Amino acid sequence: MEYNREPCPWRIVDDCGGAFTMGAICGSLFQSIIGFRNAPSGINRRLLGGLAAMKNRVPLVAGNFALWGGLFSAIECTLIRCRSKDDPWNSILSGALTGGVLAARTGIPSMIGSATVGGVFLALVEGFGIMATRLHADSFAQHIQMYDPENLPEFHGLPLRSRIGFTGAPIAGDTPPPRQMNTANSVDVDRIGKGR
């Protein structure tokens, strides 16, 4: 389950807006390049051609991205509600159903092809996400185990009361460390740790 996403009814609006923004940014970049290349020669004509292509095509591209993102999230929320689970299968099925629904006007074979492409693409994305999560979890577990006080060599054989915590303060019940004085201006060094 992804905890960094909005809850399900608001997820549709969030994903729709995010997809629209991504479509507007990517569409602006690609359409300006296409318009620049297809315009007549001359730098002013090419710049105006790129700008005209952006004005004509970017709203359509951004709207298509928003439609895909909103439909995907709506289907995913429906699957979460019906299955009572939030797992990677919801995203994979949502990608397949979204591809199929968006290709509905072109016929059954096109719907099946688009659904297959959408499902495979989302399966790859989810698979890479799961793999990355497991790799990070393993490295995090090794990191925690490496810095566990029991695994540090200087702590073996010492009683618990003589160990020092990671904050630099002694464990409760120990005698406080001797005060160190700064010879330059005679400031008490351990005041910060003791709160005085």
Low-confidence runs (pLDDT<50, min 5 residues)?
185-196
Output the structural class.
mainly alpha
SSE string, helices as H and strands as E:
HHHHH
Shape: globular
Distance between the termini: 46 Å
Helices, by number, come to 5
Task: Note down, in words, how this protein is organized.
The protein is mostly helical and 196 residues long. It contains 5 helices and no strands. The chain is globular and about 60 Å long. The two termini are 46 Å apart. The C terminus is likely disordered.
Supply the key terms.
66% helix; globular
Strand and helix layout:
Blueprint: H1 8-38, H2 43-83, H3 88-102, H4 108-146, H5 191-194
Helix pairs in contact: 1-2, 2-3, 3-4
In short:
The protein has helices at residues 8-38, 43-83, 88-102, 108-146, 191-194. The chain is an all-alpha fold and 196 residues long. Helix 1 (8-38) runs antiparallel to helix 2, helix 2 crosses helix 3 (88-102) and helix 3 (88-102) packs antiparallel against helix 4 (108-146).
